[in-house]
Amino acid sequence: MFKINFKSRLQNNVSAIRYFPIIFLIGLVDIFAYGSAKAQSAGPQVESDYFILKTIPIPDNIKLEVGGLTVLPDGRIAVSTRRGEIWMIENPYGENGSSPIFTRFASGMHETLGLEYRNGAFYCTQRGELTKVTDEDGDGYADHYTPLAIFDLSGNYHEYAYGPVFNQQGDMFVTLNVAWIDYGESLAKWHGWLMKINPDGTMEPIATGLRSPAGFMVNSNNDIFYAENQGDWVGSGRVTHLQKGDFAGNAAGLNWTGEPGSPLKLTKADVAKVDDGRPMHEAAKTIKELKLPAVWFPHTLMGISTSDILEDVNGNFSPYKGQYFVADQGHSKVMRMTLEKVNGVYQGACYPFREGFSSGILRLRWGVDGSMFSGMTSRGWASTGRAEYGLQRLVWSGNTPFEMQNISARPDGFEIEFTVPADPKMLRDAMNYELNSFTYKYHHIYGSPIINASPRILKGIIVLENGKKLRLVTDSLKAGFIHEIKLGAIKAADGRNLLHNFAYYTMTNIPAGEKAVLKADEVVTKHTHAMAASTTTKSKSVSAKRLTKMPADWGQPDQVLRLGTRPGLRFDRTQFEVKPGSKIRLVFNNNDDMQHNVVITTPGSADAVGELALKLGLKGAEMSYVPSSSKVLYHTALMQPNSAESIYFIAPDKPGTYPFICSYPGHASVMRGTIIVK
User: Fold this and answer.
1) Which residue in 428, 429, 427, 486 sits closest to 455, CA to CA?
2) If I label 402, which of 83, 338, 527, 672 is the partner at 20 to 30 A Cα–Cα?
3) Cβ-based neighbours of 262, under 8 Å, separated by 6 or more
4) d(Cα 659, Cα 23) in Å, to the nearest integer?
C-alpha cells in the first residue's frame, strides 16, 4: 500500500482514497453465462452473452476524466486525466469481491492525454510537453517532472497532444492536434504531425495530414497506425498506416513542410488543385504523397469519433487473435478491425463488436488477466454513454459467438470466414446477401455525404470447409471504395443467429490472381437484394417539412426563434413558447465545430426519431439524418460548422410540448429542447 504523504509539482498533500465496498451484481452475469453452444442456441444472442462489462467504481471526489491509461507489470493500472493528474489503482480486477484502492501519484500538469510506463518511469504528454515522471525515493509518489520535449503552442483550445507510444526499438512518438478557427489550422509548428522523440529530446517529423489523432499505436510488426475523426478534409472516421513522408489528408500541417527536417515538400497550393470533391483515391493519383486509409469506419454506420486502437496479439479474446479493436468516443463503443496486405499495402474491414460503455472511450489497454480496460471521458462533447467519465473492464466469457470472423479480398469478390461453421444450405441462398460500394468526397469542407453509391451484383456463392468459410463472387469490385457486406437469415450449424450481420471492407487495391471458376450449383442466376443509396434524390415527405423561404402571404412571422449551439453537444436554448397556429421563423446558427440539424417532433417522439435516424444506413447523409416519419414535423438541413439556416412553419394547433433534437446519430440523446405550444 502507498504511503499517505503526497508530493507533486504543486506540493499538495492528499491522502490515498479507499473506496468503501458496495454490492456488485455484475458478477452474476458470470454465473448465468451460457455454458455451451447448445445452450446459446435457445434464444436470441446479445453482445453481453459473450463479452461482459464490469465497472470499476470511482470515488465520488475523484474526477477521473481519462486521458491516458497504462497497465503496470504487477497488475496495477495508472490513469492520467485531462486535469493533469496521474492516479494509481490497486486491485482494479476486484479480486475476491474487494474494492479497488485509488492513490493520486502526481498532479499539477496540463491535460495529460497519454500515458506509458517504462523502466520504472511514467511518460506522458501534456498540452505543451512530453514529460517523464519519476518516484526517486520510492515512497509511491512523484518526485520529479522532467520535460523531454517541448511543443510550440498558439493557445488555441484544440491543440491537443497525445502519446507517447513506444516502438520496438524504444523510440517514442507523439501526435499533435491542429487548432480550430472555424476550420482546422496549424497555428503552431508541427501541429498536425506525427513526431518521433529522439533520446536527446529533439523532435523528428515523420508524417503530416493529421487532424485529430487521438488514437495511435505500433503493432506487432512495428508499423504505426492512427485513427482519425471526421472533419475538414476527412469525410469519415478512418485508420491509416503511417510511414515517413506520408500525407494523411488534412492540409493544415503542410504549413511546416518548408522547415528543416520535413520529410516531404508538399504544399497547400498543391493540395488545392484536387480540392473539388473528388474521392480521396482519385486525389491520390495526383498527390503522390497522399496516404489512403487502411480501413474506413463509415460515419454513423460504425461510429462517429474513432479513438484508440488495440491489437490482440496474445488471443486475449480468442476468436479474434491477431485482430484489432478500435474505440469510438461519441458512440461509447468498441469496434473490430481486420487487416491484410494487398500489393504491399494494408487494407481491411471493420465490424461491430461491443456497445453500451458508460462514457466516451478514449483509451484501451489489456489487463494482466486478458481483459480489456476502457478509459472514458465525455470531455464536454457528450457521448451515447451519458456518464462524464468512467473506467470499465470488458471480460470474455469464454464462449464464441457466431460472427464473421474475417473478410479478405479476392480478385472477384470476398472470402468470409466464420467463427463457427454456418448452415451450408442458408449460405447458398443468394437472397441472404446485400452488397454495395460507396465512398466520400475529399475536400476542405467538414465531413462528406456518401457518394458514388452503387450495388455489387452477386454472381457466385462457393461454400468452403462445410460452412466455415464462404466465397462471394461479384460482378465487379471498385478500387478505392468501401464495400458494404450484409448477410441475411444465415444461422450457424448449431442454430444460432449471427450476432452482427454487416461489415465494411476498404478495397484500396484489388488483389491479383485467378478468378473463381464456378460450378453449376454455385452460379447465381438472379440477385436483386442489393440496395444502394441514391445520391441525387431526397424523400418528398421529408423535404416538404423544410420550408426555407417565407410564404408570400405571411407578411411577416408572428415570432422568430433563434437557436444556436454551445460546447458539449448542446443547444444554447432548450425551451421556447409559441401560440397555437402562429407563424414561426426558426433561425438555426450552427456555431459549433461539427455538423448539426434541428428536428421538431410530435410530443414524446424525441427518442423514437433519434432511433430512426440511427437506422437510415447509407441514406442517412443524403436525408440530413431526418427519417421519413409522421413523428417529424419540421426540420433544418444538416448544417456545416459555422453556417445558418432559417425555416418557416405554422405552430401546431394543439397545445402541448413538442421536442426538438439534433438527429445526427449520437447527438439526439443529449442535444435536445422543447417548444411549448400554449
Assistant:
1) 486
2) 527
3) 205, 256
4) 38
